[in-house]
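request received
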Amino acid sequence: MRKRLPILLIIIFLVAGLLPPSAPVIAQTTPPTSTYPTTEPGVLLVGYREGATPRLMDLPSQAGMAAQGQELQALTALNVIKIRVPAGMEEQVRQELLQDPDVRFVEPDYLVEAQLIPNDPRWEEQYGQRGVNAPDAWDITTGSSSITLAVVDSGIDSRHPEFSGRLVQGYDFVDEDRTPQDDCGHGTHVAGIAAATGNNRAGVAGMDWHAKVMPIRVISDTGGRCSGPTSGLASGILYAVTHGAKIINLSVGLGPGQFSQVLEDAVRYAYQQGVAVFAAAGNNGGTSLLHPASSPYVMAVGATNTVLTDKASFSNSTSQDNQRMIVAPGMSILSTTPLGYFLYEDFGVERRYGLMSGTSMATPFASGAAALMASLPEFNTPEKIYQAMTATARDIGPTAGWDRRTGYGLLQVDLAMGFEDFTPPSTPAAALEYDWVSSPDCPQVEYLWDDASDGNVVPLADQDARVVVQLNAPLAFAGQTFASVVISANGYVAFDPGAPAYGDTTNYPLPWPAPPNLLVSPLWADLTQSVGGQVYFKDTSDRFIVQWDQVSYRGMYPGDSQLTFQVIFYRSSGHIMFQYHTLKGPGSDGSRGTVGIETGPDTGTQYAYNQSGKLKPGLAILFVPAEPGSTRNVLDCLFVTREELTGCQQLPPFGADLARETRDLPDDVQLSIRLLRVVPRNWPESFLSLEHFAEITAEPGVSFARVCYAYTMTDVLRAGGRPQNLFLAVSQPRAKTWQPLSTQADTAGTQLIATLDHLSVFGVFATRPMQLPETGAALAQQRPPVAGLAVLGLLLGCLVWHWKKR
Amino acid sequence: MRVLCWLCLVAFALTSCAPEPVSSRPAPASTLPAPLLHRSVHTLTPVATITAAPTQTPLPDSIEEMARSVYGERLVQQIQVPAIGVRAPVRPVGWEVQSASDLPEWDNPEAEVGWVVSSALPGDNGAIILYGHNNIHSSIFKRLADLKTGDTIDLQTGMETWQYRVQSVEIVAVTGPDEDLAAYRRVFEPQTQASLVLLSCWPPDNNTHRVIITAVPDFAPVNPL
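response:
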């Protein structure tokens, strides 16, 4: 038996090398795009803000005459819809949709893939279950049928005797039916590791022998590989949550470097609903986890080698310090396979019971263990299950304690079940939050470049480095005081002492739960100083400046872009200013980078996240600190309140009335009114703009609001002298126009009032005459005198002749 | 000869009874509405659902009062165009939306000259726009098209007199919606240079065209205070 190990390894590498479809290992050497698409062409997922109603009737005009929306029932909890657009126009439509303030994100439908390496069968029996001490755990419990474990994967072969009496109704998001039959062999194998019935005189024993298994099919045989779209995966997760699953196994992942907001929202939703999620670390041997394993809401599971001393070569490491990650056996795992033909049979996996390798196989050891734990009353939240697993894992890998290769170490389910020293999650509430106002819209914010290139060079060792800089005097941020800051080559400053040194090459939306959580990011992106760039800081008595000078986006041709920008911390006021001096090259208009401030794992203020048109040279963005929940007027440009709203006089001249006393509205609605100067100027010609604009938003969203505008005599004169000529209109970014609102001119209160069902960007307009005044009329035409006189003359002649004749 | 005479009679009858030439523009006899009564009845009933707007005081009702309140002595009070013998008071005018389906109606300046309240005033960058009648209500601007380049126009505000010199005299046809819109754009496109525009209908006995006089400021105010 031992002798076969080298042969097995050779086969693994052969399989890995020859069969890219099933083995993302290949992605290490060739870009994944060269073989298969990594997204569904012509499909976009659109996420709307909480409370906003997805509106499909005015989808992008220019790009999307053919764009069609489809509400995914399974994703309604996330307020996400899927739209079809002409292939090739995805990015254009995405950018158009992002103009809508109700849209949180628009992303492609990424393809997720099974994370396994199929290999030669018949090698060892079930060393994995022994390696995680399952037999000792079974002395305590072998599981409970009151716990449901959802395997969101390629489905299951429901005829397999190991699952007899164990299945509950799942769903097939590939075929949109209720029979999630496995055609890959992947889901059946994964389910068997977690939950094959034990002690039944047949085959193998899974980790949990009694839990109900909910098979949900989201990936399938797509021509030589087992994959499916993110929309299906997210739908599957939500289905599991809403149908009673307590544990979800995700032995799938996106491509390296990809991140899906829909997926992130789905796993966060699961976590918040008390469902523990386990996700495969990834099989490309990379230095960062694939998504969703990289999410802070899941437990990432890597694979060990067969002797359980280190990670398997293919298993991805993490790039985030203290990532919630453990490892479990993942090489040559024996488990259940379908009884009839399945995709992985082509790669040598036997029917009924077969061997497979991958982080896909490691993950169900942990999810199955979690199902066992969840049958005990003390493990009633995902956080407790995660904590018990990480605290009791056996430390393996090159360094003592947590390390990037194996996280907290090898799962020890028996110890985890005995763990009771829980610590409450520590998320310190931010003492201050930040509001932003920017130079084009707010006259009080002026771009004044404060050059720091005569300051100190930040000694960054390489293009992903961070350096801790000791400050001359303490700096206040988010209500705390700091003696040092971390400056990253990738366009941000962090205040967390434990900010990780690597892994910031992918920028995320803010707030983002993973550290660093005290983050000031004028342009967080994968940047490089390799083309003559430099990062400077300047520490004076009244301000601290960090300047990224002539840096570039990292990529094939860094010389294509040049970026010079700075962040200024004003010591006395606590204000923070971002200024952009040079933005050249693709993506530099904001479509590559995160701009904002984070004050905690779930608090922060984002100005832009990968959104084009948000940055331009000469832009200044000022962040002003405020007490959370307070009512404030920021430089007469932004008004924020959570107070009871009576009347319409919040930020003159604009106001909003959410009619809280009569409507069923949550107590903590935050209303924001932001005066604007820069808006899409695409209103009809018959609208005369009075150049008064405001973006009015409520968080969470509302379905009823009254928008008010206090008009002046100057407004009335500019509108032709009548208040009744004035009206309010709402910007319709997707239809590329402005919609006039039925407006009431309250002449006693000198207000314009419009009632509508959602908040957006509003403007004040007047109806224009569209023709010049008519100052005359068509008078009765005088007869041509010559003809008239001639006739008269003839007549007179006749008369004279007549009389003469008499 | 008798026959000839009867023919003459018939011919006379025909010419006198012949329908008037049909204007290509189905204009009503009078295109301006009845003069507006600016002291319109003001309803003081507040909007019931709005609970607080206590700091606001109602605005003046009439366009003249509002303009006087906002611009005071800067308002143009009188226009003098010596070349065509015009010397007339100037009053603020605007337009009124009658219904959602119709275009707004311009105010009637009657026997005076109207200053468009959304346009500039002397000293502003932008076009000062004035219009007056050519045949109905008054014929104050009947001879506007007789102006020549270089003729002077004086605008007297409450403070000073501003002199302008005619730069161009244009007559544009407005016999359909497209031409109407083009003429409107021509005059009401936002300007950054100080200028003066006088408008009326043309010819003197019809409204098929518009005469557009463009003048530019002649030096500084003639008699600075």
